[in-house]
Structure formats: structure tokens, C-alpha cells
Amino acid sequence: MTNRIATPFLPAALIAVGATLAAFVPAAVRAQAAAEKPPLFIAAEVLPPALAAGSNFKVVQRVENDGLMNHYRITSPFGNLEAHSNAELAKRVQEYRAIEQLKKLESSDQFGKGVAGAGERVVKGGEALVTKPVETVSGVFGGVGSILSRTGDAVFGDPASNYEDNSVQAVAGVSEQKRGLAARFGVDPYSSNTLLQEQLTRVARAAAAGNLLTSTALGAISGGVGTAFTVIGGSQTLNDMLRTSPPSDLRRMNRDKLSRMGASADLVDLFLANRNYSPTYQTLLVDALDRMAGVAGRDALLKTATGADSDALAMFRQRQARMYASYNQQVQPIARFSANGNLVLAHGRDGRVVVNLPVDHLVLTETVAAALDRAETQFKSQPTPVVRELWLGGTITPRARQAFESRGWKVFEKAADKLIGQG
């Protein structure tokens, strides 16, 4: 692993991730910390071959780390993208594979015959949705109540996220086709990847107008996108729900779950109003909280989640919640959660304190060192010694490990692989 010094790449989207630790530390203490500099990695040396390059993409060799997350730039004939974590990189690679297969499907003879057979429905239907949306919507559902149950979410319910279709596409059947296509090719139908969304929409629009996605048309493309990288976590039941349920139904379900677990109405409103959570990320986070029935203080996780100001941070928060849920089920029961700023701590029934962080590579930066010192001061003020565990999504530098272990922390690396996988 190359470890040359680089200027940290810190897009605004992930400044708040760094605040997970920074908010825990006063400036006076932070200034005293002896720090490491975030490293520069070489993609070919730190990534498995399947993630470093493929038939339709290549990761730029320079990979910068900000002390918590790795940041990647990806080039492709389909368009260039950035990924602000290992998990997001795996998701983008799968999406490039899906785009390639969708393009093959779109150019297949069977697909072309279906479009031709659909005739004016593909063109005229699309025009009607643009020029006469009210007439078209009324024709599809034929009732005000039915329309509002699917399209009036922003008026009578929680607002739509930044990553889903408009109401016209929803009632025209395009959104349903997109969910089906996304499930077929192993990608998130609510991805923030605009390249994927454009390709899904083109194929789904034709499919909705002409009923094109027959088994013959799907069979016309060679091979598949593979299933090495799962981008939608959780159970098969949850995956099926994300595929079959419109976003408005998912939001109502999530609101009901949060209310039943005792979250305050104001907190639920704040979380569901955060448009940075796609229906997928929102549902995964709420499902993780729901799976920790009986654990006190789950609202601490929900409170930190409300502050996500980007898709990248929303991904971080839902992965963190899922790590805690899996820890509770697979490793050790959690009694309660507590929060100090943006840092969420789990308290085990045996008294141990556990911190789960889905970070890529933890470096003993000034911020991390100061946070560790502050935590040590708090633990020393308690009457009995506290067992401490740090579960990291990825890896940790030797110097950072030594700093944590010398203060009594037991450090677990690559915990995300064990607890939640790459999704």
C-alpha cells in the first residue's frame, strides 16, 4: 500500500462525516494532538481488480483519503463519476455494468421490434404526458382519490426525495418499470447517479408504452451484470418491498414504524423531510432501527441522521444504523444508545461501550486524536472501568490503532464486511 502524503480531498458532501468526530472535541484540546496526515493511495494497490477497472470504466489511480473516507474518480465512455467511499465505489461500478446492459437491451432487435409494434404509443404517449399531464393522469387512474394516494405525497404527506421520479412518470407506469429494471440489473432505482437514471428512464418509458420487456427481449442481451456487489442491503423481503412499492407507500410505512417505536412527532417529521434520503436509504435506516426493538435511545441515531446534508452522508448514516442493528443481533445485545454531538455510542447490556463507524481508513488525524483524548477523560470520570470497542467499516493505521489500544479500546477492522456487506 502506497502511503505518500497528499492534500486531503474533502468535498462539502463529506465535511459532516468528519464532524462525527470533530464535534466531539473542543478546539483547545484539538490543537494539542499529535497528528498523522491523511494518505494518498494508488487504486491498483488498494482495490480488488473488479473494482479498479472493467470493460466500461476505470478508476483514476490517485485515491485520496481525508482521515476517514477514500475518494475516487471514475472515468467511462458513459460519463465520469466520483465516489466518496468504498461502498459508493462498489455501487457505482455495479451501475456502470447495468448501464452497459441496458444499452445492449435498448439496441437489441427484439427491443426495436417492440418499439415499432407499439407504434405511436411510445411517441404520442410521451407527448401527452408533457403537453396534457392532467388528462393523461386522469385517464390512467380515473379518480381523484386514487391519484392523490400516489402523487399527492408532497401536498398531504412527506415530501419526495431528490432521487425519485416526478408524479407524471409514476402514474404513467414509467417508475414501476424502472424499479423492475433496477431489480433485474442489481442497482438502486433511486440512485443519485444521473447517468443510470437517464438510461433507466429511456428504457422504462418505452417499456411502459409498449410492454417491451418480454423474456425474449431480456434474453437478447449477452451475459448479466453479475451480483458480486449488492447495493440494496437488508432482507429479501425488504428488497422486494423496495421493488414493488411506490415511494409514497414506503414513506408512510417508515412513518408508522418510527411512530410505533416511540420517536417524537417532531423528530419523525424532521427525518422524513430530509430530501437527501432516497426512499432506499430512508427505508434501510428505519428498518435497522425497527430491528432493534427493545433498545432504548434509538432516537439518538435518528437525531444524528436528520443532519445528513448529502447523498454520501445519508449513505453513511444508514450504513451505521445497519451496523448497529447487526451488532445487536449477531455480536452482543445493546441496551441503549447515547449521543455526544454527532458521535453515537451503544451501551451493551454488560456495560461495554461500542462505537460503530462505517469509515474506509481511519487515520490518527488531529481531530481523531483529540476526540480520543476527550473520550478518555470522560471514561476516567466514571466509577468503574469501561470496556470499549471500536468497530470500523474498513481499516486503521498502525499509529491510530496503537493510540486506541493504549487507552483500552479493542479495535475491529473490516467490520462492515461481517455485519452488512458492501451495500
Main traits of this protein?
single chain, alpha+beta, 7-stranded antiparallel beta sheet, 5-stranded mixed beta sheet, disordered N terminus
Topology:
Elements: E1 4-5, H1 12-22, H2 27-30, E2 39-42, H3 43-46, H4 49-52, E3 53-54, E4 57-59, E5 62-65, E6 70-75, E7 81-83, H5 86-107, H6 109-118, H7 120-131, H8 133-141, H9 144-151, H10 153-156, H11 167-171, H12 174-184, H13 194-210, H14 215-219, H15 236-244, H16 247-260, H17 265-272, H18 279-290, H19 298-306, H20 311-330, E8 334-340, E9 343-348, E10 353-357, E11 361-362, H21 366-380, E12 388-392, E13 395-396, H22 398-405, E14 409-412, H23 415-419
Parallel strand pairs: 10-12, 11-13, 12-14
Antiparallel strand pairs: 1-2, 2-5, 3-4, 4-6, 5-6, 6-7, 8-9, 9-10
Helix pairs in contact: 1-20, 5-13, 6-13, 7-8, 7-13, 12-13, 12-15, 16-17, 16-18, 17-19, 18-20
| Radius of gyration over C-alpha positions, nearest whole angstrom | 23 Å
Please give the oligomerization state of what you see: single chain
Number of strands: 14
Quote the distance from N terminus to C terminus.
Answer: 25 Å
What percentage of residues falls in helices of 4 or more residues?
Answer: 40-55%
Look at the structure and give the mean pLDDT: 80
Q: Briefly note the structural class of the backbone.
A: alpha+beta
Largest sheet: 7 strands, antiparallel
Give the uncertain stretches in residue-range form: 1-16, 23-33, 121-155, 225-231
Note the beta-strand portion. Answer: 5-15%
Number of helices, counting only DSSP H or I runs of 4 residues or more:
23
Shape: globular
